[in-house]
Amino acid sequence: MILAIDTSAGTDIALVNAQTRQVLAEVREPNPRHHAEVIGDGIARVLQHADIAVADISEVVCGMGPGPFTGLRVGVAAARTFAFARAVPLRPMPSHDAIAREWRCANAEYTGAIAVLTDARRRELALTRYPAGIAEVGGFELVSPDDVDELLGEARRVDAAQVSAAHLALAWCERRDRGASPAADEILYSRAPDAKPGAVPKRVSGK
Questions:
Q1: Which residues in the chain land under pLDDT 50?
Q2: Are strands 156-159 and 11-16 parallel, antiparallel or unpaired?
Q3: Run of H or E including 177
Q4: What is the DSSP letter of 33?
């Protein structure tokens, strides 16, 4: 049984049967903030909805971004803690892989290249290109919204505001079926955090 967690946008948690590929439960919180407040309850809810015990979880799939520093850190920490506590494998996956899979499932007639785009804040978008027939890609880039159409070429644009944890788990299953190399266990932050170790706090005027 797979527990999948993604907090690169909102908070999304799912339980998927690794053998039958059936989605047993999924909890979605679209708010792109407050991940820490909802993730524990979300995990408890999917287990309850699916009537699955914690001991039945055999692996944890974790969305690694791209996404903002704070949100991603909460989801990855929760996934790593759960996997460590249960002594089960952690499967890192790029969050955009789930978006690409969900879109291709809904648009099976299209087999060409696609470009997944999510909000990276500060008037930028995170873009991952998926060439035709290729499911594993090298990474993402930050682009200006004004430049997207020129950059895409023939690729179909896929904008998303939420990542499906269920599709993340299924993308992992398909990756394993193909015998592809595991994704790197590296968090794909949209950009480095503003707070730097040892930085002097900025003074704020009380006027």
A1: 194-197, 199-207
A2: unpaired
A3: helix 165-177
A4: S
